[in-house]
Design a protein that fits this description.
The chain is mainly alpha-helical. It has one domain. The chain is built from seven helices and three strands. A hairpin with a 5-residue loop joins strand 1 and strand 2.
Length: 197
Amino acid sequence: MNTVINATLNPLVGILRRSGLLTRDLDYHAVRASMVIIFLFFGYQKWFEYEAQVLIPYISNGPLIWWMYPVFGIRGASWFLGVAEWTFGALLFAGFWDKRLGILGAAGSVVTFIMTVTIIPFMPDGWAASAGGFPAMTGNIPFLMKDVVLLAASIYLLKQDVARIGQRSDEAAAVPTAAGERKFAGGVARSTGLPTF
């Protein structure tokens, strides 16, 4: 069985390696670009009456966002979300060049999707009784389930940007020593530029 799997996968792996798909940071940039597009498109919708009406069951049943209607009204809540989504999308986009702005965008994205994911348990009629209830999704729940993945993507971007800022700080704190070595608080790293522990 392993021979058949290897015979099938080895050529595919070779093609993928040569294709550039495994280029350093491709996944990181693809996730960032997709999140920018998501925020651009979803933020655009928020400026129109049809979307303000579509949001009513979500905002009304959201334990973390219910307050928007008393504060902003139906259209105002939609506009507020549009501004927030475009702001986070712009910060994520700026994160291609400045990781500090990327951190702000990713943090805002994490908060956004925590707010939407927490709606899932409170959405009425979200589980199909005819199919035995949970986990058979119905109504608005399937739309919200995508936010679980978007929350994971947001956490990934936040982690990556924080790590890259930390790595830059470590490299800036390095003190040159003999023979091209760099001294770090945790030890000496040779050509990799990373501290050894």
